């Protein structure tokens, strides 16, 4: 940082690309840096990722760049900084004014007050799920149908590599104020849909993470935690039903034994049966269907008996 700042102040015209990732640049140092290159006609690319820039620094950048400073700049990376959705709105304004300037910023999952934007998170998870499904669809078009045969893209491998972080979203506890937010349940639904796609079609890659994270047991728990969220129930049900009827015996037995599916179905089925039909939780029908599926499988499987 110091060397770059010194060279910019000398205006020697030698700097075209600034690589300042993880240089502990805060808002004050950011201001010094950009004021030094305000009239530069040489700098085309600046990497400021993984620094300490806040929304105030983003406001400074937005004002400066929208005002026409550093016209040579065509790439700016500000990912991994301490910014919220307010800053991302400012970067969107820069993109609107400076058409040829590409601004890379982090995923917008924080509101301006620093709390989680669950609606935005749900949209992001749905986008990821769609991309994964499209990737798998291309594989199937090429005649590959079994998970073990699929040659996964770098994007899917990256997703799988960060699967534990995605699974941890299921453990998020929202405040009472957020419970009224329409997005409070959407992120769970989107996440379960994504996990279902990954579990069923990327099984060889995710086996270790799934077994160690107890994610299927967490999915079962969603029934009782959100007894009236019928859309969430349908999403979890589709995943469980697909596992029971799928080809992966490892995944099947993990659901039956490690996640204790028979015990769960017996317990919840007993609870639902004891209630009048109009007072049963909205997942009661799914419990009965899963129980019947397991019973039918039991008739043809001695080990399951």
Structure, explained:
Helix 11 (215-225) packs antiparallel against helix 12 (230-244). Strands 1-2-3-4 form a 4-stranded parallel β-sheet, with helices on one face. Helices cover 59% and strands 4% of the residues. It has 305 residues and is mainly alpha-helical. Belongs to the SAPS family. Pfam families: LRR_6, SAPS. One of its GO terms (molecular function) is protein phosphatase binding.
Counted by DSSP, the helix tally is: 15
Largest sheet: 4 strands, parallel
Radius of gyration computed on alpha carbons: 25 Å
Terminal-residue CA separation: 67 Å
Mean pLDDT: 80
What does the overall shape look like?
Answer: elongated
Helix-strand makeup class: mainly alpha
User: Largest beta sheet: what is the strand line-up?
Assistant: 1-2-3-4
- Number of DSSP strand runs: 4
Strand content: under 5%
Query: How helical, in percent, are the residues?
Result: 55-70%
Would you identify the regions where 5 or more consecutive residues have pLDDT less than 50?
175-184
Q: Which series of helices and strands comes N to C?
A: HEHEHEHEHHHHHHHHHHH
Family: Belongs to the SAPS family.
GO molecular function: protein phosphatase binding
């Amino acid at each position: 940082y110091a060397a770059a700042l010194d060279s910019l102040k000398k205006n020697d015209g030698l700097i075209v690309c600034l690589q300042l990732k993880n240089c502990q640049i805060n808002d004050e140092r950011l201001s010094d840096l950009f004021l030094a290159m305000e009239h530069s006609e040489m700098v085309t690319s600046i990497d400021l990722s993984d620094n300490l820039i806040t929304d105030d620094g983003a406001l400074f950048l937005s004002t400066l760049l929208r005002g026409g400073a550093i016209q040579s700049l065509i790439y700016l990376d500000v990912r991994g900084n301490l910014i919220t959705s307010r800053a991302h709105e400012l970067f969107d304004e820069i993109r609107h004014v400076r058409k040829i300037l590409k601004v890379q910023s982090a995923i917008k999952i924080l509101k301006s007050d620093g709390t989680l934007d669950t609606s935005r998170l749900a949209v992001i998870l749905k986008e990821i799920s769609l991309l994964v499904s499209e990737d798998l669809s291309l594989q199937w078009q090429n005649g590959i149908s079994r998970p073990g045969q699929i040659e996964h893209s770098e994007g899917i491998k990256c997703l799988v590599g960060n699967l534990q972080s995605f699974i941890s979203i299921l453990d998020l506890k929202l405040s009472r104020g957020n419970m009224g937010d329409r997005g409070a349940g959407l992120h769970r639904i989107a996440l379960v849909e994504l996990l279902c796609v990954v579990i069923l079609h990327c099984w060889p890659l995710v086996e270790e993470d799934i077994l160690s994270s107890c994610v299927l047991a967490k999915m079962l728990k969603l029934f009782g935690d959100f007894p009236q969220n019928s859309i969430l129930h349908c999403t979890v049900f589709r995943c469980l039903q697909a596992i029971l009827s799928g080809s992966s015996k490892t995944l099947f037995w993990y659901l039956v034994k490690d996640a204790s599916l028979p015990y769960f179905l017996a317990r919840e089925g007993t609870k639902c049966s004891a209630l009048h039909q109009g007072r049963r939780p909205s997942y009661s029908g799914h419990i009965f269907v899963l129980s019947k599926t397991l019973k039918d499988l039991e008739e043809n499987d001695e080990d399951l008996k």
